[in-house]
Amino acid sequence: MKFKALLLAFCFVSVASFAQDKVKYSKEEKQKMEKYLFNEGFNTPSPKKTSTIILKDGSTHKGFCSKIDTKKGQIFEVSIKDSISKKSMTFNAEQIDEMYVYPSNAEKFAKVAKYMGNIRNIGTKSLNKSTTNGRIYFVNQTVSLKNKKDDKEFLMQVINPGFDDIISVYHDPRAKETGGVSFGYGPQLGGGVIKSFYVKKGDKVMWLHKDDFEDNYDFLFGDNKEFMKKYPKKSVEWDYLSFLINEYTQMTNG
User: Fold this and answer.
1) Res. 188 pLDDT band, cuts 50 70 90
2) Whole-angstrom distance, CA of residue 212 vs CA of residue 237
3) Confidence category of residue 63, pLDDT binned at 50, 70, 90
4) What is the pTM of this model?
5) How does DSSP classify residue 254?
6) In this structure, are residues 93 and 77 in contact, taking their beta carbons and an 8 Å threshold?
7) Strands across the sheet with 204-209, in order?
């Protein structure tokens, strides 16, 4: 009898704990959380616009990007032709601190076509970020590709430059997307959600995949009790990541 009473009490506690870990959001709140706030990830710089490379020794080099070598999609070597002397120069990622390039027109056109081909994008993403004429920011970062390879320095695109002071998010050039449904030649319905990014918080840099989001939720946001109460892990989805990082940053910074 005592065992049954103890088991019943445990069930009530478990149900209560689960209920406290769930928050019901309104339709308007969900629409706000689904807005994609990250910049578009670009893989191909324009060879016709001046790129800027800042080395770790403090020197700055400007020129037209003539060649980029990558490993698993990440940049590890860049060649430019100096805009004044026309001299070709090649730099390894280990030498470079920051790099600013412009996206190629071909990739921008492809981004626009992809944007228009998915109805979900129209409601959650900004077309302006696909057609941007602004510079794309890359930073030297030491990472383990997919958390499996040896640590190595690469040039990685920061895709949350406006709210990266606590958590930095980097474009994963080899990221896959969730699938959707299309009928004939019509636009795709659903899907199109990027499944992985590289994320840095403190001294830790990791490859964050959609499947591992819940396991790493406490690492990302657990040091802000107010945030965790408002957005408990059982109540949110991977689709909300850009909103959650922006919201966490604002709440943490006051």
Assistant:
1) low
2) 12
3) very high
4) 0.88
5) -
6) yes
7) 167-170, 196-201, 204-209
